[in-house]
Amino acid sequence: MRSRPSVLRDFTVDRRVWMLTGVALLIGAGAAVLAVFLLRAIAFATNVFYYHRLSLAMVEPGPIYSEPGICAWAKSIREPTCRINGFSAPLICC
After folding, report:
1. Does a structural domain hold residue 88?
2. Same structural domain, 48 and 82
3. Rounded to 5 degrees, what are φ and ψ at 4?
4. Residue 69 and residue 50: Cα distance in Å, rounded?
5. How many CA atoms lie within 13 A of 94 on its CB side?
6. What spatial distance separates the first Cα and last Cα of the chain, rounded to whole Å?
7. pLDDT digits (tens, 9 = 90+) for 72-88
8. Which residue range is the domain that position 71 belongs to?
9. DSSP-derived secondary structure letter, 9
């Protein structure tokens, strides 16, 4: 398919360009929806695994270390993992 000749040959837009633009907009919108879904999934996982509650609220995992029972639990998971990986993580809690 050839486009009609014009004076501005570099700026001609035919049906294929408009179709490509539409597909790009659909892919971009889909990616934005997927990004929001992933953010909500991360927030849900943070609430379930760190705070032991079912919520979609976005919270920072920092305040967890103010609770005494959870601090020991977090250290017990972090220290063996750091030894396996061969490096020492900075002490964050307690």
Report:
1. yes
2. no
3. -70, 140
4. 12
5. 10
6. 70
7. 666 666 666 666 655 55
8. 60-94
9. G
Q: How many CA atoms lie within 13 A of 34 on its CB side?
A: 6
Q: Give the pLDDT confidence of 16-36 residue by residue, as tens digits.
A: 999 999 999 999 999 999 999
- For tokens 């700026």, the residue is 11
Tokens read off for 18: 């408009």
Tokens standing for residue 76: 């017990």
51 and 76 co-located in one domain: no
Quick one: CA torsion of 68, 42, 39, 57, rounded to 10 degrees?
A: -40
**Tens digits of residue pLDDT in 44-74:** 988 888 778 898 888 876 655 555 666 666 6
CA 93 vs CA 4, 62, 77: distances in Å? 69, 9, 12
Domain identity same for 35 and 68: no
